[in-house]
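Researcher: Quick test of sequence recovery. Tokens follow.
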């Protein structure tokens, strides 16, 4: 049989041992059909000899399927590791980006404080100019 890379063992259809839940009545019924007389003349001799070969072939097939499944899992694992590393790098970049944003926010806060100080100083200068004009007009009237 040809084994493909898509061969993955499907364990969802494997059922638990049905004998584990068999009742006494089931066992009693099965005993009726069991022939333990020791007379096995109904089985051909060739079939008995081929059985170990068939079992070995079956074991080899299962081993090949397991190897293919293992390779698939290793590939998936490598992809997941790569994804985790990428996300880790993005988180690291995000952390440095957040620190840049925090630094820029501090600069912006400082600029806002300077603008407020400039407004206050501008208002004080305007008030002083008004006071100077008022004093000049008082001096001009007094002369």
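Model:
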């Amino acid at each position: 049989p040809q084994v493909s890379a898509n061969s993955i063992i499907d364990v969802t259809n494997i059922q638990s041992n049905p004998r584990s839940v068999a009742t006494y009545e089931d066992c009693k019924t099965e005993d009726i059909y069991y022939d333990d007389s020791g007379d096995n003349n109904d089985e051909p001799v060739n079939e008995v000899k081929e059985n170990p070969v068939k079992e070995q072939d079956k074991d080899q097939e299962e081993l090949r399927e397991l190897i293919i499944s293992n390779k698939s899992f290793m590939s998936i694992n490598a992809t997941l590791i790569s994804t985790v590393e990428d996300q880790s790098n993005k988180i690291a970049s995000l952390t440095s980006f957040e620190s840049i944003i925090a630094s820029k926010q501090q600069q912006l806060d400082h600029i806002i404080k300077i603008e407020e100080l400039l407004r206050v100083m501008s208002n004080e200068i305007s008030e002083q100019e008004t006071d100077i004009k008022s004093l000049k007009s008082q001096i001009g009237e007094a002369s």
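The first helix runs from residue 24 to 33.
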